[in-house]
Amino acid sequence: MRVLAVEDDPDLGSRLKAELERHGYAVDWVDNGVDGQFMGEQEPYDAVVLDLGLPGRAGLDVLRNWRAQDNRMPVLILTARDAWHEKVEGFQAGADDYLGKPFHLEELVARLNALIRRASGQARAQVEVNGLRLDSERQVVISPDGAEIELTGTEYRLLRYFMLHPNHILSKTRLAEHVYDYDSDKDSNVIEVYVRRLRRKLGESVIETRRGQGYVFSSPDA
Amino acid sequence: MKSIESKLNTGLGLSLIVVFTLLGIGVSISIRLLMENHITVRLEHDAESLLAAVSIDPSGDPATIELLTDRINRVYDRVFSGHYFVIASDHKRIRSRSLWDQDLPVPPVLPGKVSARHMQGPENQNLLVRVAGYRKDDKDLVITVAEDLTPIDAYVQRLQIRYGLTVIVVLALLVYLQRQVLRQGLGPLDHTGRQIEALERGELERLSEDVPLELRPLVQQINQLLSVLRQRMERSRNALGNLAHALKMPLTLMNQLTDKRENIPDAGVRSEVQGQVRTIQTLIDRELRRARLSGARGSFGRLGLAHELNSLVEVVTQLYRDKALKIDLQIPAELEYSADREDMLELFGNLLDNACKWATSMVRISGARSDQLWVRIEDDGPGASGTELDQLRRRGIRVDEGKVPGYGLGLAIAQDVVQHYAGTMTLGRSDALGGFMVEVRLPLQRPEFRI
Predict the structure, then answer these.
(1) Bridge partners of B377?
(2) Which residues of A touch B309 (CB under 8 A)?
(3) Which band of pLDDT confidence, cut at 50, 70 and 90, is reported for residue B18?
């Protein structure tokens, strides 16, 4: 899962990036509105954490511009401006959620997870497909027989993306875009390596290969 | 303070009375002088014809004088006709028949001299008397001719009465006209007055400067004052907002730091620090919100409550999407209230947020206006117990006490707004839904208006 964080405060921004990465997100952090809007337009993010008081371009304008371009990615506004008239304005500009500063990181992560889940059509609070259940807190996957299977950060992000988009043909490029942040070397061949590792941990049949197209995480019940 | 109108009316009335009186006196005197002048000229002619009618017989000793009566005006023959003459020589006085048994006692004058005077005549007539000395055929004669002025006095008096009546009518007419002119002239003041009332009700942002030249500086000054006040308000609001922003950032970082177990290994200390940070956070939050309210004084627009509440419902629907609450908004579409929009959103946003936080499946918002505006927000959550409600009512809502979990800060802020608008807030149990119920009542007219 790839998240864009637009936050001008350097302390909070770097902490946000670190903490979200710890919770299994690939995070791009920019500190101004102009770059923020550009990144949001160029990269396929799964969610955005957007501050409102930004240098360069106000957060609400960035959001309105995205929505005007029919960019529907989930946006969570994270701001100190949490008066109700500002919340109304934020939602009217197209926000999906609103969190006032000061905030607790757990709440931000929970809301971000919920946003991404809703965006991919998953109603349940926990991501659970084919008996596999993701524990976002500890970044492990729990198999149908209850065994906990440890995952690395990239493996976790990749598996979550598969599980949130079951029965979709996902190209290596698309997977790379959602699993790595902007600064990483997005070598799509690396995806092959990680898919192989996931198959080794979860079983060969979990992820199917469609030659020349990509991979499919099949699920009869989704 | 006397009204301008009555002041102007009194002034105009008095000055007109003085002018008309002086004019009346002047005209009376002039007419009288003119008449007297005219009469004097006639008396002179009469005297000259009398002189011509006197025949002197110089043979007699003393020389006898006689009047050829057929050559004098008949008016001198009618008794007390008001026209008299006396011709006096050294030892003879010829009196006109009209004098009957009376005489005109005048001191003689030398020939060639003339004198005129007023005197009392027969039957209290007011006579104008002309005495002239002549010399005819070496004989000195004094001819006194008099005419009664009573008819002229009566005429002047009649004139004065007529003049007076005309003056009264004209005066009344002028005062009436002035009133109309004043009303029309002061009309713009009324208009501006009504605009100021509209300004107070929040229907206007500034006064129209399309007023007479004399009023324009005043109106412009009022507008200037309004914009200065508005700017000042805006500035202090912005300053508070900036402060809020500035304070929230370090608090956020403190939160992140204290949330990490490895930063403060001692669980007791950690929860103590977390609690203190939370208290600071809450206090700052409330004080800043309250300060923002105090800055909210100004002219208010009319607020479409249904529209504003609906946008709040959309917000909480998003915020509590996972609960899939049914939010029942029963507000008449035409319901309006003049208040600051941000204040109202803060008030109802907090109450609605509380209701959604505790509701199981349903929140209802209802409201209407009669002699005041009332809005009720109910939920089907656990609600507050009787003792908790008692405590809230008795001691008021305090932020630092989480007696009703989660209701604290939101209710406190709502309470601040309600007090700011001189309204009341009632807490209780919802009859319809069984959960918490808050009813807000706000007066339509705020008792005092401060900017």
Answers:
(1) B365, B438
(2) none
(3) very high
Order of all β-strands in the sheet with B139-148: B93-95, B83-88, B139-148, B126-136, B114-120
pLDDT digits (tens, 9 = 90+) for B339-358: 888 889 999 999 999 899 88
For residues A140 and A96, state if they share a domain: no
B178 vs B186: CA distance, rounded Å: 12
**Prior bond of A102 cis (ω within 30°):** yes
- Could you say which of B290, B322, B343 is where a domain stops? B290
Instruction: Tell me the nearest-neighbour CA distance from A76 into chain B, angstroms.
Output: 11
Number of domains in chain B: 3
Regarding whether A164 and A195 lie in a shared domain, the answer is yes
pLDDT digits (tens, 9 = 90+) for B128-173: 999 999 888 888 888 899 999 888 888 889 988 999 999 899 988 9
| Residues B224-235: tens digit of each pLDDT | 998 898 888 778
**Among candidates B256, B292, B319 on the partner chain, residue whose Cβ is nearest the Cβ of A105:** B256
CB contacts of B255 in chain A (<8 Å) are 102-105
Verify that B49 and B137 share a domain, yes or no.
Answer: yes
Among A78-82, A101-105, B25-29, the range of highest mean pLDDT: B25-29
User: Nearest by CB to B315, which of A53, A81, A88?
Assistant: A88
- For B255, the closest of A91, A102, A118 (CB atoms) is A102
In a domain, B56, yes or no: yes
The alpha carbon torsion through B157, B161, B167, B170 (nearest 10 deg) reads: -140
Taking only residues 129 to 158 of chain A, the set having a beta carbon closer than 8 angstroms to any beta carbon of chain B reads none
ipTM value for the complex: 0.74
The SS3 of residue A8 is coil
Report pLDDT digits (tens) over A57-101: 999 999 999 999 989 899 999 988 888 999 999 999 999 999 988
Compute the nearest-CA separation of B369 from chain A (Å). 23
| pLDDT at res. B63 | 65
Residue that is written with structure tokens 């709040």 in the block: B312
CATH of the domain at B423: 3.30.565.10
On whether residue B194 sits in a domain, the answer given is no
**Distance separating alpha carbons of residues B346 and A85, to the nearest angstrom:** 7
Q: Considering only CB atoms, which chain B residues are within 8 Å of A83?
A: 289, 292, 342, 345-346
Mean pLDDT to the nearest integer, A155-176: 88
Query: Is A102's CB within 8 Å of B254's CB?
Result: yes
Domain final residue, candidates A84, A119, A154: A119
Q: Is the pLDDT of residue B445 over 80?
A: no
DSSP label at B111? B
Q: Which 3 state secondary structure label does DSSP give B375?
A: strand
State the pTM of this model: 0.59
Spell out which residues of chain B touch residue A12, defining contact as CB-CB under 8 Å: 249, 252-253
Distance between B255 CA and the closest CA of chain A, angstroms: 6
Q: Which residue of B lies nearest to A110 if distances are taken between CA atoms? A: B322
Residues A107, A175 within the same domain? no
Q: Where does the pLDDT of residue B202 fall: very low under 50, low under 70, confident under 90, or very high at 90 and above?
A: low
Locate the chain B residue with the closest alpha carbon to A19.
B256
Calculate the alpha carbon distances from A55 to A4, A80, B201 in Å. Answer: 17, 15, 38
The minimal CB distance from A80 to the residues B244, B314, B345 is found for B244
Residues B306 and B268 in one domain: no
DSSP state of A54: -
Q: Which residues of A touch B341 (CB under 8 A)?
A: 85
pLDDT in tens, B30-39: 988 998 899 9
Which of the listed residues A88, A119, A150 is the one where a domain comes to its end?
A119
